[in-house]
Amino acid sequence: MILIKLGGSIITNKERPQSARRKTIDNILKQIKKIDEPKILVHGGGSYGHYWSVRYGMHTKPSRYSLKGLSVVKNSMIELDKIILDSATKNRLNAYSLPPTDFMNGNKPIRSKIEKIGEIAKSGLTPVTYGDALWYGQKKSYILSGDVIMTAIAKVLKPRLSVFV
Fold first, then answer.
1. Whose CB among 62, 67, 90, 96 lies 3.0–4.6 Å from 136's, allowing a Cys bridge?
2. What gap in Å lies between CA 126 and CA 96, rounded to an integer?
3. Considering its fold, how many domains does the chain have in total?
4. pLDDT category of residue 106 using cuts at 50, 70 and 90
5. Distance separating alpha carbons of residues 111 and 65, to the nearest angstrom
6. Helix H or strand E encompassing 155
7. What is the CA radius of gyration of the chain?
8. Using CA atoms, how far apart are residues 45 and 103, in angstroms rounded to an integer?
C-alpha cells in the first residue's frame, strides 16, 4: 500500500485564491493511475482551504473561531476535492472521497474507520481525503492538516511507502 500526499502548493496556485493547477493535477493523477498496488491520496488546501484559514485566523488548536471562517474553509476544501475527484475520473482512477469527519472524532483519529480506508484501497478504489476545518464541539473548531492525516493513516495502516508530492 502507498500513501500519497498531494501538497496544496503543488496542486494550487497560492498566488491567487481558489486557483487549481488542473493540468498539474491531471499529470500527477495520470502517473498515480500507473501504480499497481493499493493507494490512498491525501491532499492539502493550498489556495483553497489554507488561504481562507489564514484569512480567518484559524489554526490547528481547537478554539472558538469564526463560524463564517469555518464554513468558508470547509466549503472551499469540498470544492478542491471535487476538482481532484473529477480529474481522477478523467484519468480512470476510481476515486472514493472520504471527508476527514468519516474517520476523526474531535481531533482524535478513529482506528476502526482508518482500517476501513485500507479495506477500501485494497478493493481497487482509491480513497481520497484532505485537510479540512473540523467541528470540535463546545462551539470550537480547528484545522486538521493533510500532514496530520498522513501520520494518522500511516500509524494504523503501515503503508509500504509514504510519498509527499
1. 62
2. 6
3. 1
4. confident
5. 27
6. helix 146-157
7. 15
8. 18
Structure-derived torsion over alpha carbons of residues 139, 144, 94, 126, reported in degrees to the nearest 10:
-130
E strand intervals along the chain: 2-6, 39-43, 95-97, 104-105, 108-109, 126-130, 132-137, 140-144, 161-164
Pairing of strands 140-144, 132-137: antiparallel
Global confidence as pTM: 0.94
In b/e form, how buried is each residue of 72-87, taking b as 16+ CB within 10 angstroms?
Answer: bbbebbeebbebbbeb
Q: Could you count the other beta carbons within 10 Å of the beta carbon of residue 120? A: 16
Determine the pLDDT at residue 107: 81
Q: Answer whether residue 152 shows pLDDT above 90.
A: yes
What's at 36, amino acid-wise? Answer: D
Q: Checking DSSP bridges between strand 108-109 and strand 104-105, what pairing results, if any?
A: antiparallel
At 59, which CATH number? 3.40.1160.10
Cα distance between residue 39 and residue 14, in whole Å = 27
Look up residue 151 and give its amino acid: T
Q: By residue range, what is the domain housing residue 54?
A: 2-164
